Amino acid sequence: MGEEIGVGCARPTGGPVGKNLKEEKETKNENLLQEENMVMVGKPAPDFIAPAYHKGKFIEVKLSDYLGKWVLLCFYPGDFTFV
Amino acid sequence: MSIDSIFVHKMWDDNELSKMVKGGVPFPMMSDTGGRVGKVYGVYDEDAGVETRGRFIIDPDGIIQGYEVLTPPVGRNVAETIRQVQAFQLVRKTRGGEATPSGWKPGKKTLKPGPELVGNVWKEWTTDLAFEK
Known about the structure:
The structure holds 2 protein chains of 2 kinds.
Chain A: E1 3-4, E2 15-16, H1 21-26, H2 30-37, E3 48-54, E4 57-62, E5 71-74
Antiparallel strand pairs in A: 1-4, 2-3, 3-4
Chain B: H1 6-20, E1 29-30, H2 36-40, E2 44-45, E3 50-51, E4 53-58, E5 64-70, H3 78-93, H4 121-124
Antiparallel strand pairs in B: 2-3, 4-5
């Protein structure tokens, strides 16, 4: 969990991982895409990897590495956005 | 998680958040440039190019038990989030044998769903229990 990553000038990005990835790239049908991606209570949380800053280090986070723990996943509009 | 880079996360933590939380933010501050994860979770605002205030409770099996999404100007209620996690943990521990009625918090009465409880919740639970006292 939380491997440290190398840092370069290109901004490292993550993204979703898992079974729907291929179809997501191949299909152009927006409605179909939305339905596939719909999150719902009682259903699995879509897995992803994302670069992160954690206590002085740059690491890579994978949601599925946290299986066995309770996870709070929080999104927000941006750093320095006041509330 | 936001659309900011990990470099901006570091600057925010170093220059502001660490002044509010001793030692800085204790959990990973994730970067989702492009909003690709946010799109999958339904919290990415295409027009504004940012993610809304979405909060997902994910259990140890990776199942989403609850979520809440707010528009940017309103902050969250962390105590309520913790209360919900405590409720889900109790339900999980009792394997669904107990359920937490409206307004439940640790120490308050739970309900045990079953044939005897059908139509009898009024004997076990009153509406004033739904409110903070």
